[in-house]
Each structure stands twice: as structure tokens, then as C-alpha cells.
Amino acid sequence: MVLGLMLATPAARAASPYGERVREKILPNGLKIILLEDHKAPVATFQVWYRAGSRNEQLGKTGLAHLLEHLMFKGTDKTGPEEYSKIIQRNGGNDNAFTSNDNTTYFATIASDRLTVVVDLEADRMHNLKFDDAQFVPEHQVVMEERRLRTDNNPVAALFEQISSVAYSAHPYEWPVIGWMNDLRQLTREDALGWYRTFYAPGNAFVVAVGDFKAEELTATIEKAFGGIVPGPPIPPLRAIEPVQQGERRTILEREAQLPYVVAGYHVPNLRAPDAYALEVLAAVLAGGKSTRLYRDLVYDKRLARDVGASYDLTSADPGLFYVYGQPLPEKPIEQLEKELLAHVRRLQEQPVSERELTKAKNGIESDSVMAQDSLFYQAMLLGQYEIAGDWRWIDNYLPGVRAITADDVRRVAAFYLTPENRTVATLKPLPLAPGQRPPQESAPQGMVH
């Protein structure tokens, strides 16, 4: 009976709408506070989200958002360089940060009775960040080395970078989060300070906390720490809108690699559009596990690929790309794998999925969503991602939206969005390794993490 109650707990919590459990307050300086009490363990996660990612940069200064993320750990008048993490660790917690296309986020998980430590540290560096050339120059070098390791020495990551640069012609999703190397080389301390003064202000940020605390008391603590910070200047609006693509685009990347790779990207809407949930289910039908269409057919049955997949970012701030991708087994032609991947897309356009396959995909989505919500960190991330996409309250629409999708909805969105004229295809063409050269890392790109 006890085991049954334990297993039921995550599902019971997930069934309770976030709108009923989350407490929100906006301070006079514009800082939004989003709090969710969860008392299953005496810990809490605290996150500060800045609406400042690579989409807010300009050509010639790409990579600034990620560089500033690194520099945020260089101290203030109250804390010395790298003291932030040391203080968190001394209090039994852990911390990190990441930069994406749409935001930069700082987070720490700590015993709930030490939560004030994190609040004070984050409020301090929101408006008192301090670094000189002695701190800037080495961190600048670290970021350039990070690009070399994660992208320049990773042909698959470089391929995903290239497909974005070709698929977009007018929107800042065109450039990578980590920035172009030539831009990184030219960034200065003044550039980083200018970015900080422009985007790091209460009016362009929000706080998310989930865990073992009383929301009313934590709100008062946050207001005391952050309330006196000035709102900051108006944030430059982003007006870029990607025009409709009017024909297939192709690009080839020639790099030292062991195996080729192919990616097809299609322009699709995000959470703000009614078709978002159908696209989410479509991705799950194609590649929501090793028993779904792509993996079962191309990896198990035909033994053509070593890896295949599909992905869709529901919560991007602006419309993104729906990806279908794969890497063939040695001696298998990349042209055949591309042909098979696109054939799977066509089948979805022409034939509705079976009710069994549809139900399996939706059950997988729901199971993953419900079980993940047993994590305090995941719940906080979910609130932050939806807030970046538009409003954290939209979380409550997710599972009902997925459940309502029909086989015809999946076929319809596949036929409407996954068309040749809306497609960009990027292919990695391996070059031979030099004698004694170690094989490069070959993995899909991940978010920029400090």
C-alpha cells in the first residue's frame, strides 16, 4: 500500500493544474516572481531567467550572451571571482548556468533553509557585477576554446550549426549560441559590459523557485533582495521575422569525420500556434523511442543506420525547425539513408497513423511529462521555458492539447509543414583523418552550459 501511494504521488501532483499551485507576483521594478511549493524533500531550486539569448545579438558580436554568462561568476564588490560557486558549495548546494537562443539562466539547488544565500547572491550580481581585464581575458579564451571543443572539433555539431545558418536568412536563429569564431575573437570587455547593462535588469528577468518553502515568506525575501534594483533601460525590441521559404535548400559540410550524417530541417511554428501539439505528437510517432518508426525500421530491420531521430522545440520564443536526422552504418550510403528518412515523412503525409501507434506516442509523451515532474529542477525549468515562450500558465494546456490530437491532425501537419519547398538538407561529407589524428567527437549539439 505504501509503495502504491509513492508511485501515485507524481501523477497526482501532475494532475493538479500549475495555475492552482503556482504563486506569481510582479515587483514595481518589473521583476516577475514565480513560486511553486513542493514539500516532498527539504530542498529547493532557485533560478533567475534573463530574456537575453543569442537571438538578441547582432552579427559581428555573436556569442556575447554566452560570454557574459561566464563572466557572471567573476564577482562583485561583495564576492570575489568564482566565490559564488564556492559559497553555494559550502552551504551544501550546487549551481550552474546555461545560454540558449532565447535566454540565459542561472540556477542553484540547495537545502531550503539556506535558500536566502542564493537569493542574496543572485540579487547582488544582477546589478553589481564587476570584472576587469585580468578576469575578462582568460574567460574570453575559455569561451573560444569551448567553441573549438564543442563545434570545431565536433563535425555533427558543426553540421547542425550549418543547417541553421542556411535555413534562416533574416532571423537571428541563423547564428549559433556560442557565436562565430571571428566574432568571438573581436569581443571586448566593453562589449560584455554593454550587454550586461542593457539586458541584466529586473524588467528583463524573472525568478523561478520550486521546493520546500512557504511562498509568502520567500516572496518577501526576494522582494527585499531585488526590490531596490532599478528597472534598467528599455530592452531593444526584436522585430526580425523569417520570411516563408520558397524552395529546398541544400548544404554540404566537408570535415574530418569517420561517418557521414544527414539532417533535414523544416520551418514550423512554436507553442503560440494551434498546430504545436500535433507537431509534438508527430515527432513522437517518428522517433519517440527505440520502438518507434524511424529506429525500428532503419536501425533494427534494415540495418541501414546507427542512429536516427526527430526533434521539435515546442517552447522556442520564435518559430523554429523540425528536424529529422540520421547517421548510417559504415559502408552504408548516406544517399540511401536520406531517401529512407524522407520516405518516412511522405508516408506520414499520405497515410494516417494507426490508432495503436497514435495512442502509444501520446502515452509516451504523457508518461515522460508526468514522471519528470517529480523533479524539483525539472518543474522549475518547465515554468521558465513556458514563461520564455509566452506564459508559464500554458503548461496546463500541454497534456490536454496532446490528448486531443487525432491521426488526421498528425497527417495534416506533416503534409502542410514537412514539404520539399520548406526543407533545408545538410549533409556531412567525411574527409579522411590525417595520420595519427584522433577521431573527432561526433554528437548532436547541446545547450551552452557554464
Give the helix/strand layout:
Elements: H1 2-15, H2 18-21, E1 22-26, E2 32-37, E3 43-50, H3 64-71, H4 83-90, E4 94-99, E5 104-111, H5 115-127, H6 133-152, H7 155-167, H8 181-186, H9 189-199, E6 205-211, H10 215-226, E7 249-256, E8 261-268, H11 276-287, H12 293-301, E9 305-312, E10 320-328, H13 334-350, H14 355-372, H15 376-389, H16 398-403, H17 407-417, E11 423-431, E12 448-449
Parallel strand pairs: 2-6, 7-11
Antiparallel strand pairs: 1-2, 3-5, 3-6, 4-5, 4-12, 8-10, 8-11, 9-10
Structure characterization notes:
By secondary structure, the chain is an alpha+beta fold. It is built from 17 helices and 12 strands. It has 2 domains: 19-226, Metalloenzyme, LuxS/M16 peptidase-like (Cytochrome Bc1 Complex, Chain A, domain 1, 2-Layer Sandwich), CATH 3.30.830.10; 249-433, Cytochrome Bc1 Complex, Chain A, domain 1 (2-Layer Sandwich). Helix content is 44%, strand content 19%. The strands form 2 sheets. It has a 7-stranded mixed beta sheet, sandwiched between helices. Strand 9 (305-312) and strand 10 (320-328) form a beta hairpin. The model is unreliable at 1-14 (pLDDT under 50).
